[in-house]
Amino acid sequence: MTQTTQHTPDVTARQADPFPVKGMDAVVFAVGNAKQAAHYYSTAFGMQLVAYSGPENGSRETASYVLESGSARFVFTSVIKPATDWGRFLAQHVAEHGDGVIDLAIEVPDARAAYAYATAHGARSVAEPYELKDEHGTVVLAAIATYGETRHTLVERTGYDGPYLPGYVAAQPLVESGERFFQAVDHCVGNVELGRMNEWVDFYHKVMGFTNMKEFVGDDIATEYSALMSKVVADGTLKVKFPINEPALAKKKSQIDEYLEFYGGAGVQHIALNTNDIVQTVRRMRAAGVEFLDTPDAYYDTLGEWVGDTRVPVDTLRELKILADRDEDGYLLQIFTKPVQDRPTVFFELIERHGSMGFGKGNFKALFEAIEREQERRGNL
User: Per residue of the chain (381 residues), what is the pLDDT tens digit?
Assistant: First the structure.
């Protein structure tokens, strides 16, 4: 196995970045019923509705709900009545893939420059740079294609102070808000077809100037029955991190194979969310009906021996089925939900970091075995 870590560069290096980014702008979902999705993520994920676009404010074709938790922003869009290519694309996407992520939008300081660099280095254009304006200012947008039918919208919003984008109006939370469950998107994981991981890693190298952060191959992510390979690309500041997975040949069908089959191709597998208190977040999400992967008690019998002391006692980790891992920089705590829709596709990760910038390598075997148990229950192993 090869494993490398990229550390945050100095200011001069960031200024010289050919494709500078400010962070994740939004994770955009195409769903069958955006109103119901917005309610689910408000109650089960503790997010707050902040903006809306629909028939009431001039959008006759689609309805979109914008939810936030700290800097994490999710947008849920569904089609009311297809009338344009965009509406037909959304309707077809939901029909073919089920609810899923169509856009990993990235905030950039200069959307035109980012688009020009990306397309000059091989990116396929989805939308040339254009402006949206309202009384709150101007947003510049452009979009490029990535794996599957996923896109990256490049968002320049430095001249805008509205609730989300022109065409959206501010909206009140759907449920009474309390302390937030999480505060940021940590990373977004893509699943691609066998043999295409390196192709997409190279894409991020060339098109966005991203570099390899971690690499997991061979026995790193394998059990008796299934395996995968993964490489993580990130921008120079590590604000945007994209692990790319592909299946590896094994005795039975891996979680990546299952995803590709039921999603109908490559796409976003899971979104990791930073939390400052994973214990309270898990308790509250479980109480709201979110299902998490189970971890056998045996995992915790020797956990303290190799992970050392953590903020959360091992007994509490055992009770809540939270995983822990440690590397040379510190430790992390993490847990994974089960898929959040009927198809075994998109799920979420909660992660609490204490120095470690890793992805829980020490947990891969336990995690994979937990996923395999769920696959077997679904008849898909």
Answer: 334 344 444 444 445 688 999 999 999 999 999 999 999 999 999 999 999 999 999 999 999 999 999 999 999 999 999 999 999 999 999 999 999 999 999 999 999 999 999 999 999 999 999 999 999 999 999 999 999 999 999 999 998 999 999 999 999 999 987 889 999 999 999 999 999 999 999 999 999 999 998 766 555 555 555 567 889 999 989 999 999 999 877 656 778 888 999 999 999 999 999 999 999 999 999 999 999 999 888 888 888 888 899 999 999 999 999 999 998 999 999 999 999 999 999 999 999 999 998 876 666 666 666 667 777 788 876
- The alpha carbon of residue 132 and the mean position of all alpha carbons in its chain are separated, in whole angstroms, by 26
Cα distance between the two ends of the chain = 26
Strand partners, 64: 53, 77
Q: Are residues 86 and 212 in the same domain?
A: no
CATH code of residue 192: 3.10.180.10
For residue 179, count CB atoms less than 10 angstroms from its CB and return exposed for 0-12, middle for 13-18, buried for 19 or more. exposed
35 within a domain of the structure (yes/no):
yes
> Which positions ≥6 away from 47 have C-beta within 8 Å?
41, 67, 68, 69, 72, 74, 180, 181
Domain boundary among 170, 195, 216: 170
Contact 100, 268 (CB under 8 A): yes
Judge whether 187 is annotated as a binding position.
yes
The residue segments making up the domain with residue 318 are: 184-378
205 is in an annotated binding site: no
Asked if residue 71 and residue 159 are part of one domain, the reply reads yes
Tell me if 11 is assigned to some domain.
no
Burial class of residue 24 in the structure, from the number of CB atoms within 10 Å of its CB (0-12 exposed, 13-18 middle, 19+ buried): buried
Give the distance, in angstroms, between the CA of residue 242 and the centroid of all CA atoms in the same chain: 8
Q: Assess if residue 61 is contained within a domain.
A: yes
The tokens describing 345, both together, are 């596709």
Q: For residue 336, what are the contacts with CB-CB under 8 A and spacing of at least 6?
A: 270, 292, 293, 347, 348, 349, 350, 367, 370
Q: Residue 354 annotated as binding? A: no
State the pairing for strand pair 267-274/347-354: parallel
Q: Pick the last residue of a domain from 136, 170, 204.
A: 170
The number of distinct structural domains making up the chain is: 2
